[in-house]
Protein 1
Amino acid sequence: MVSGEEGFDGRIEPFRTELLAYCYRMLGSVHDAEDLVQETYLRAWRAREQYDETRSSVRTWLYRIATNACLTALKSRGGRPLPSGLVAASDPLAPLVPGEHAWLQPLPDSLLEAGDPAVTVIDRSSLRLAFASALQHLSARQRGALILRDVLSFSASETAEILDATVVSVNSSLQRARARLKETGARQELVSEPSSTEQRAWVERYMKAFELADVEALKRLITEDVLMEMPPMLNWFTGRADYGLFMGWVFDAAGKDWLLKETTANGGQPGFAAYRRVGDGYRLHTLQIFTVTAEGISRNSVFQDPEIFAAFGLPTEIS
C-alpha cells in the first residue's frame, strides 16, 4: 500500500507522459488517449489502498489499469487506420471523397515534452505515424502484447499480468502481431530514418518551394514512390508524377499565397501548418506531417480536422 496522499501522487505522477504515449498507440486518438490517462489516474486513486508493492511495481500496476481502460474503450470502437491502409489508391485529380471513418490522429510533440525527461523515457520511433497506423490493424490484445513486450520491454510474465492473461496466450498474440507488422514494413521504414536535423532540412526546403507554389521544386524533394494521403478524405495516391499533378491542382484551387508554421509530431516527425490567404489574413487549411528518408520525403500525411488543429494549438486565423 502507498501511504499518504502526497506520497501516492508523487509515485504515480512521473508515469503520466509515458502512459499518454501508450494509450495513444493503443487508440490512435489524442483526445481519447488524454481521456483514458485521466481515467487511469482516477481509477488508481480510488484503488490506492489496494495496491500491494510486494506483488508488482507501481509502473506495472498503472499499466494494468491503463490497459484495462484501453481494452474496454476498444470494445466499442474499431481501429483508426489511415486511408492508405483501408481503400485502394485513387486518381490524384479525382474529386475528394470524405470517408465516414475514425482516422488515426497525429500526436503533438508538445504533449510528450510535458513530462520530466529524467524520469520518463519514451521510445519515440514507436510513435511514428506509419508504425501507429500499422498497430491499428492488430486486434486490441495483439496490439497490447506487442507494445508492452517490444516497445516497453515488459517481461512475458509482467505482460501477462497487465493483460490478465497467461504467458502462453501473450506469446501467441505477440507472434501473430509481429508477423502482421512485418507485412506492413512499418519497422523497416524506421531503420533508414535520417537524423532529425537532416529531416528538418528536407522539410524546410519543401516549405520554401511550397511558399513559392513551385511544383517542380516540390517534386525534386520527394521520393519516386512518395505517398500522399489526406484524412478525412479517402483519396490517396503514390508516385512523384501524381504528386505533382495534385499539388498543381491545390495551388490553382486554393491560391499561391501561403503562410507556414513549423511543428513536430509523433516523436519527432517534422511538419507544418499551412495557412492560405483569405482577404486580409491567412486561414488554417491543413496540417502536414512528413516521413523523411535519406532520399527525400517519402510520405505526406495531410490532416484537415478541427479536433487535430486544436490539439496542436493552431490558431484558425492569422492576420
Protein 2
Amino acid sequence: MGLWGKRDDTVVHEERPFNAEPVPDALDRHDVTPVDTFFSRNHADIQQLDPDAFRLDVDGLVERPLRLSLAGLRERFAVRTVVATLQCAGNRRAELAAARDIPGQVPWGPCAVSTAEWTGAALADVLAAAGLRPEAGHVAFLGAEAFGGSIPVAKATAREVLLAWGMNGAPLPPVHGGPLRVVVPGYIGARSVKWLRRVTAQERPSDNRFQARDYRLLPADADPAEAAQGHGLSLGVAALNAAVLCPQEGLPPPAGPVRFSGYAAAGDGRAVARVDVSVDGGRHWRQADLGEPAGPWAWRRWRLTVRLPPGTAEITARAWDDSAAVQPERVEHVWNPSGYMNTAWSTVRVTCVENGDGRSCGG
C-alpha cells in the first residue's frame, strides 16, 4: 500500500501537498471507485482532525446560527447517500501542456476524476434548521486548512449536496476530507471543500482566494497573474468531459479484437447521452455501449470492441450530453494559461502488434 493508503501503482505528482491519481487501468475497473484508487487533490497538508473534538459552525445570513458536533449532525438530521463523481478542474491538464507549456501546475492525466458513494446530511436540511434568510444568495464553505469556496443558494438547497462523513460505506478518511466535507455533485471538485469547519450564508460569492483569485478560466492570450486579480471566469459547474482509459499509450495491444473503454461525465443538470469512438482520428465514428449510471450524479462508463489490424491506430472519444452539446475537437481550442477544463476530444495512439504479443489494460 502506498502513501495515504493508495495503491502502489498510484501516480503521485506531489507528496506535500499530496496530489495523486490512479493509473488508467485501475480507474477503469469500477463503477464506484475504491478509496485506495480515488484521486486526491490538495493545496495543503492532509489535516488529521479529532472527530470527537470536531465542530461545524453554520452562520451568516441565518436566523439561528448553529454549532454542531459530528455526533450531533448525525443524530439531528436524516442520513442521505448519494453516488457522485468528483472531477478536478485540472483533469487532463497534461494534454494541454503538451500543446503549450503550463508552468507551475500539477500535470494531471485523465484520472483526476473518481466516483464514490457519499453518506451524510443534506446541506439543505442544515440550512433549513438554521433558518436561511431570503437575502442570502450564496453559501460559502471553509476548511480547516483555509481552503474555501461557495455555491449559489439554489444549488446549496438542492437535495444532492451533502455534508458527508462517509465514503463507500466507511468513515470518511482524512485524505478525502474526514471527518466532514462538502460534496457538491455536478460542480468542479474544488467546491467540495474538505475538512469542513464553517458554512456561511452570504449575499455574494466567497472571497476566499481559491474562488476569488484561483480556479478562474482565463483567455488563451492572458497573463496567468490576471487570475489573482479576479479576472477570468470563476469555475463552478463541471463541463462535459470524456476520456479513453483503455488501451493506454505505451501498452501496445495485440492485433484483432481490441476493447476500448473509459468514462464520460456531464455537468450540473445534464446527463451523458452518447459517446462516439473513432479509430482513424475522427474521420469515422461508432457509438460506444454506455453502462448504467450508479446514480444521476455519477459518470457513465463506456465500452466498444473493434477489430484492429497490426500497425498504428488513433483512438478518439467524444461525449454528447442531453442538450446535444458535444466536446470541442482539439486541445488548442480550449488551451488556457492555468490548464483548466480540458474538455477536448480524448485521443490515445497505439501500435497494435501481431501474434498476440501485445499488452493492454485489464477489464
